Amino acid sequence: MQIDLLQEARRQAEICNACRYCEGYCSVFPALHRERAFADGDITQLANLCHNCRGCYYACQYTAPHEFDLNLPKALAEVRRDSWESFAWPQPVARKFHTHGGAIALASVLGFALLFLAIRAIGSAGGDGFYAALSHNAMVAIFLPAFIFPLSSLAVSLRRFWQSVGGTAIRLRHITAALGDVAKMKDLAAGHGDGCNFEEEDRFTHSRRYAHQAIMYGFLLCFASTASGTLLHYILDMPAPYPLWSVPKLLGVPGGILLTLGCGWMAALKLRSDRELGDAGAWNGDFGFIALLGFVGVSGLVLYLLGGSPAMPVLLAVHLGAVLSFFLLTPFTKMAHGFYRLAALIRNAQRS
């Protein structure tokens, strides 16, 4: 990890520890105030607890032009991104995505879409619905490795993170406490409960919290839709296509809507926010990820609406290209933030 980023974050954390004005703001400050000195692993842990709500910055009396020049949200955001890049496997891909995320996401979607169209052209089709454009066996052969790779990559990355922050044996109570925090995203409500002022200094709102929740629950519904379809296919011998009132559709359609709306909402919030209070170097990667995830939701909904039209094969190729890109790039995008933050919350529960 970059020493200069850790040193600057440590300097600011030591000042915050002496001040303690923001003690009740979020999970970061109780964890910060438990320490008297900060090792590199402590700074990495604090950085991954931070949700960049920025309330502490606007409340701070030591920001510029004060000589202390504190900007804790920015310092922790830079350490956080550097930790993802340093622990990622393979590492070079993560660094590239954070600086060229938009171009990489677009190239991946188009490239994989062309691949799916080429597979269809050579005759890999047969069946009803989407399988008329691309066979079930072809989909499984492509997506099974694409699902295993990010899980393997994240397992390596999170193991490195856990060792860095001094993690110990995990108990069920630690996991349930962390999952409770994730489900409510209470840190985005800030300590006073009025929400955070991510977009404007004087405007407290829950908008970012709700946008995060829409994305998270939309993604989980889409994942549950895919899992239920897999069970229907292999366990109950009920292959797709499925009607509107089936479990996969009842989960997938609301999930796609939530995912699309949440990503659009998050993009609008980021455009209104101050880049200098976050990691400006990761701006391209952040937007590339939001655009990719939102496009997965949009393309899935369009495919559902126009699945019976002549455009279905092209729409299917584009949607599958987006989904495949999302899975393969997950360990190197901001999607990894969810896994790291959960690990950081589990570690925080161990030390509470």
Give structural notes.
The protein has two domains: 82 residues, no CATH class; 261 residues, no CATH class. The protein contains 13 helices and no strands. The mean pLDDT is 88. 41% of the residues are buried. With 352 residues, the chain is mostly helical.
Name the features:
352 residues, mainly alpha, 13 helices, Citrate_utilization_prot_B, transmembrane helix, membrane
Low-pLDDT windows of residues = none
Task: Determine the mean pLDDT.
Answer: 88
Radius of gyration: 22 Å
SS field, number of helical segments: 13
What structural category characterises the helix and strand content?
Answer: mainly alpha
Strand content range: under 5%
Element-level helix/strand string = HHHHHHHHHHHHH
What are the SSEs and their pairings?
Layout: H1 3-19, H2 28-33, H3 40-49, H4 55-59, H5 72-87, H6 91-121, H7 136-164, H8 172-184, H9 207-234, H10 247-272, H11 283-305, H12 312-329, H13 335-351
In short:
The protein has 352 residues and is an all-alpha fold. It has helices spanning 3-19, 28-33, 40-49, 55-59, 72-87, 91-121, 136-164, 172-184, 207-234, 247-272, 283-305, 312-329, 335-351.
